[in-house]
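Let's practice the habit of predicting before peeking. Look at the sequence and jot down your guess about where helices and strands might fall. Then scroll down.
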Amino acid sequence: MKNKKISSNRLALLSALTVFTTLAFTSCTEKNGDRPKDRPVAVRAMKPIMTDMQNRLSYVGTVHANREVRVIAQVQGTVVKLPKPAGAAIQIGELVAEIDVPDLRANAERLTAERDYWCRRQESDQRLVQAEALPAEQAEASLRACRSAKAALAEVEARLAKAKEHSPIAGKVLAWLAEPGQHVMPGQPILLLGDNNLEIHVEVVEEDLRRGIQISTPAQVRDWQGNEFQSKVVEVAPVTSGAARTFTVEMPMPSPDNHRENLRIGASMRVDFILAANRSALAVPVEAIIRQGDKTHVFLIRQERARKQEVTTGIEQEGLVEVLFLWNQDDLVAVSNLGSLKDSVEVFPVEIEYARQ
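Done guessing? Here is the structure:
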């Protein structure tokens, strides 16, 4: 029993010595400054870049003729000729449609015969009056009949002339709205014509109008061949159109003549509205930005330590964000592992080059 008590006392003494030794060693280590340090945070970093920045809104627009004209039937009849197919070029005054009107032609023939008869009769009566072989009243009656027949014939001929439709503009035939052999009534559309001046229509949502799309807003236009043109907004519809409640925005299509032939009415165009632009702006990748409430900052890398730097952000474009702060031309900006960074923490930076998206 006595031996067991001695063993227990020895175990207690050994445990106390172990604890004391550990505390003493830890204390000496801390006093001697030999405490293990935290490893540096590895980050990818790059220098901010100077570049032109633009705040854009992208849409798809549609090519339209600046002036579109519907050719309307002015007489009742049958379409017998549409000499120009859709897409064909036309000149002012060129025949674009002809309607057969047999009733009018029959009336014209009858009235021509009546005019010839009464006018010849009037000439004969006038000679007889001069020879005192006929009363003057009879010659006056034939003169009135001649004039009436002429007037009636002129009216029918004017209506006959309306059976041939001529183009009021120089441009293209956009569409046939009737077919040869089709019976048409007065007021019925036959053709749709468009002039050579082209424009682009874009359906824009109301929110983007509030963001800055308005008359004179510049735009960059790109066609399906990759050709780019500069234009600007010339008109914004005052009312919405369609079920989507969008507003039609119009702009001219200033394409060179050698591209104009390849542009089709109804073709789609990529349209970038430019709401703001800054030349030679200082920019960093989007992933370098940290937002905390109403504060925005980045981490600069200086002498292998992270330095928290508040910035003001501006235009965002193609993965870059414009930033405003006093840059010393040397500091890098951290673009990875930001969650592990804090002010003055030691870092291991790996410098990279920015690849534009």
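How did you do? Confidence is low (pLDDT under 50) at residues 1-35.
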